Sequence to fold (401 residues):
Amino acid sequence: MLMHCSISIQDPTGARPNTRYLNSCVLLKKVDDEFYLLVKNTMYPTAKSYELTMLQNIYHNFIREGKMELDFSEPRQLLLIVCKDKALLYLFFRKLKNIINGKDEMNDTRQAPRTVPPGHEIVNRFHPSSLFFVSYRHFDIRILNMRHLNTLVLEDCDLPTIPVQIGNLPISSLSITGSKLPTSQNELDVFWNFTSLSVICYTLRTLKMDSIGMKHLPFEIFFLKNLQTLSASNNNLSYIPHCIGELHALENLFVADNSLLYFPYTLSHRTFKEIDISNNPFELPRPLKFDHIAKYIEKYGNEMKNPLELTSLTHLALNNLLKYWLPFKRQDIPRSLWICFEVIGRCMLCRNWILPNNCRIAHTFALPSAENIIKDNKINGIPWQSLLCQNANKCERLAHS
Fold:
C-alpha cells in the first residue's frame, strides 16, 4: 500500500528532537515472506527500509487528526507521520495491524498489472473468468462482465452510488473501505440496492465499509443472510440498530473508532470469533434526548404504533416486511418506513417486533462474548440496550405461551 504524507524521523535517545517534516512516500512491501516499511523523500531518495518485526509500538491516539507514530527498535527511531487524507491514514494503520497480527494481507499498488496471470485466479484486466479484482479511484463498468468474481475490492474509489448489478455477481468478499459515498449530503438517499438481488444476498460473507464517513448502517445489509464478517471501523456511527440481530451468521464484528454509546441487546448472547470495540465512548446518553430512539419518539410521538396492532396499510406493510425479510429496494417502499428500520427491534422477552413509541427501554452492562475481543483497557463492560413491551403482563404471557 502506497501513502503520501509528511514524516519526521526522530532519534528517541538524541538530545535534540528533529522537528523537520519532509514530504514523503510510504510503502508497505513484502520481500521473501518478510514485511517492510519503505520511506522515500529528499533525505532518503533511494528509500529507507524498516523491518516490521522491529516495530515496537504504534501510537494512534490522534489518528482522527491525521497523525500517527511508529516506534522501531532497530534502527532505534520514531517516525512521526502526518497525512491530510485521514481515511487513507486509517486504512494504512489497519493494514499495518493486520500484518503484525499475522492475518493474510494483500499488499497492493494503485495500478492493475499489465499482464493476465495464468489461471485468472488473482487480479487481472477484466478477464471474464477472474475470481479476484481490485479497483482504485473509480468504478469500471467492465467489472460487471466478470461473472465468476469472488472477491471485489473497491477501495479509495469515488462511488456516487454502488451499481445494483454488482448483486448479480457471486461475490463472497466486498470492500469499499476508504471510498467516497454521498453520505455527507443525505445518507438516507444512498441506495444499497445491490444487496436485494438474489445472488449476492446469499453469497456475500465479508463486507468491509471502513472509513467512508458513514453515520448509519444501511438496513439493506440485513438481507445478507450469510454475512459472517462486518467491518465498519473509523466511521461516525453513534448506534447499531437492533435489526442487526437478524444477521444470524455474523461471527466477526469490527466497529472500532466510532462514537458508539451502546450495543443492541440482540447481540448480547452471541459468541463472536472476533470483535473490535476499541475507541468508542460507550456510555449511556446523558441526557437521553441525544439518543436516536428518543429523537424518533420526540418527532413521531404515537403516530407509528406497534406493528402487532395493525391499524393502517402502513403498519401492515411494515409487519409483512419484518416477518419475511424478503429483499426489496428502498425506493419501492414508503419513505416514512425508512426511519422505522433504524429504531425497531424485538422485545427481549416475547421476541415480537416493537417500535420505541410502545416499549420500555432498559440497559445492562457486560462485555461481549468473543474468542478474541479488542477493547480499550479501561472498558470492563459496555451498555446493552434492550426493548420491552409496554404491557409487561401481556408480554410475559406471550413469552411463556
Remarks:
- Residues 86-100 form the longest helix (15 residues).
- The longest strand covers residues 22-31.
- The helical segments are 86-100, 183-186, 200-203, 292-300, 313-324, 335-338, 340-343, 392-400.
- Confidence is low (pLDDT under 50) at residues 107-124, 303-311.
